[in-house]
């Protein structure tokens, strides 16, 4: 793995005002040595992608509790692709129906965490998944890490 620390954007897209879970996950990732950039509440997909590019992020973790997860994840993934940043790993969590998880994964979401996922499990997934990315499986050449909100 590269000596550069992993950089992860943690974002709350849309009008959802509940950010406790996102902050808990961001803190867990930070404590595990990941550089975490928390964008705050009420971010548009465009703002999230701009932050990912400006911060040279390895991954973007979205927390969505509003029910707009299909639209918001799709828009972030599409915008990353349009900006030649499709190698940025996208993952997330929130109140997401089980039936929507395969749909999200099909569109390119690497992992979906639902309520009850522990911060340590999310951190472990990020480390394991991004270490695989660093070895050439997928993702950018820095090794990526991301965060999600349970």
Description:
GO terms for molecular function: cobalamin binding; isomerase activity; metal ion binding. Residues 5-133 form the B12-binding domain. Pfam families: B12-binding (PF02310). This is Cobalamin B12-binding domain-containing protein. Keywords: Cobalamin, Cobalt, Isomerase, Metal-binding. The chain has helices spanning 20-31, 45-54, 69-82, 101-107, 119-134, and strands spanning 7-11, 35-38, 59-64, 89-94, 112-113. Helix 1 packs across helix 5 and helix 2 packs across helix 3. A 5-stranded parallel beta sheet has the order 2-1-3-4-5, sandwiched between helices. Helix content is 39%, strand content 15%. The protein has 150 residues and is α/β, with parallel strands linked by helices. It has one domain: Rossmann fold (3-Layer(aba) Sandwich), CATH 3.40.50.280. The longest helix has 16 residues, at 119-134.
The CATH architecture designation is 3-Layer(aba) Sandwich
Strand order of the largest sheet: 2-1-3-4-5
- Poorly predicted parts: 136-150
Oligomer: single chain
**CATH homology superfamily name:** Cobalamin-binding domain
GO molecular function: cobalamin binding; isomerase activity; metal ion binding
Domain B12-binding: 5-133
Cofactor: adenosylcob(III)alamin
Protein name: Cobalamin B12-binding domain-containing protein
Layout of helices and strands:
Blueprint: E1 7-11, H1 20-31, E2 35-38, H2 45-54, E3 59-64, H3 69-82, E4 89-94, H4 101-107, E5 112-113, H5 119-134
Parallel strand pairs: 1-2, 1-3, 3-4, 4-5
Helix pairs in contact: 1-5, 2-3
Pfam families: B12-binding
Protein name: Cobalamin B12-binding domain-containing protein
GO molecular function: cobalamin binding; isomerase activity; metal ion binding
């Amino acid at each position: 793995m590269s000596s550069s620390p992993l950089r992860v954007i943690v974002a709350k897209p849309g009008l959802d005002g509940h950010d406790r879970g996102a902050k808990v996950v961001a803190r867990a990732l930070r404590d595990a040595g990941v550089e975490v950039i928390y964008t705050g509440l009420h971010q548009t997909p465009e703002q999230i992608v701009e932050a990912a590019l400006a911060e040279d992020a390895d991954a973007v973790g979205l927390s969505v509790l509003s029910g707009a997860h299909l639209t918001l994840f799709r828009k972030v993934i599409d915008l990353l692709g349009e900006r030649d940043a499709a190698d940025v790993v996208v993952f997330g969590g929130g109140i997401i129906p089980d039936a929507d998880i395969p749909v999200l994964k099909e569109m390119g979401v690497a992992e979906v965490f639902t309520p009850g996922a522990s911060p340590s499990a999310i951190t472990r997934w990020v480390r394991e998944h991004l270490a695989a990315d660093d070895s050439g499986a997928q993702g950018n050449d820095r090794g990526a890490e991301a965060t999600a909100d349970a």
